[in-house]
Design goal:
Radius of gyration: 17 Å
Bound molecules: 5-O-phosphono-beta-D-ribofuranosylamine
Largest sheet: 8 strands, mixed
Number of domains: 2
CATH superfamily of the largest domain: Formyl transferase, N-terminal domain
Strand order of the largest sheet: 3-2-1-4-5-6-7-10
Number of strands: 10
Length: 212
């Protein structure tokens, strides 16, 4: 049985894109550290199993991570996908799931790790921005890159406008990355990701270019 675990903390739009995508999976479990995450309602509606592990009831990060890992292990997931999961995971947690822990980040990594990526991008005046799906390593927002989408930054962009445009592409590339993984088409060696048997519609750099 192929199982997927998705970790969320809030809105859950990337989770929704994953739940609505088609790939070989028998069971999807959504786990939230936030009991009020709006994504939980969406997950329920879309038929995923849901579980809440509220970080606030644990004395420290290690205790929370242990409880989270225990829950994850009952699902025996092939892959764990972080989708707007707003907790920093301990090194031991990350190492335990080495090679099967993915994240989506709203910038072209390694530029702009951390929060407020769109504000940072505008502040720096960069002309190209985007989003990245990567394997998780102990260093925050860092790790072997699976797929990126690059978009132009336009003269009238605000943080909100840019975030919305990037988000559309997040919803496109995350399902693609997870599909590759679930189809056993990702080869990970050192810091490199190779996509096995990719065709012309499945590029690991998606770039829609300038608007018409
Ligand atoms: C997304 O921008 C994602 O890249 C980042 O957090 C945001 C979560 O949004 N890690 P959502 O909960 O998936 O809507």
């Amino acid at each position: 049985m192929k199982s997927l675990v998705i970790l969320i903390s809030g809105r859950g739009s990337n989770m929704q894109a994953l739940l609505e995508a088609v790939f070989p999976v028998d069971r999807i479990t959504v786990i939230s550290n936030n009991p009020n995450a709006t994504g939980l309602e969406i997950a329920k509606k879309l038929g995923a199993d849901i579980s809440i592990i509220d970080h606030r009831i644990y004395p420290d990060r290690q205790a929370f991570d242990t409880a989270l890992a225990e829950k994850i292990d009952t699902c025996q997931p092939k892959l764990i996908a972080l989708a707007g999961f707003m907790r920093i995971l301990s090194d031991s947690f990350v190492q335990r799931y080495h090679g099967r822990l993915m994240n989506i980040h709203p910038s072209l990594l390694p530029s702009f790790p951390g929060l407020r990526t769109h504000a940072q991008a505008l502040q720096e005046g960069i002309k190209i921005h985007g989003c990245t799906v990567h394997f998780v390593t102990p260093k925050l927002d860092h790790g072997p890159i699976v797929i990126q989408a690059a978009i132009p930054v336009l003269p009238n962009d605000t943080e909100k406008i840019l975030a919305a445009r990037v988000l559309q592409h997040e919803h496109r590339i995350y399902p693609q990355a997870v599909r590759w993984f679930m189809e056993d088409r990702i080869r990970l060696s050192e810091n490199r990701v190779e996509i096995i048997d990719s065709n012309v519609n499945e590029t690991a750099l998606y770039s829609p270019g300038l608007p018409e």
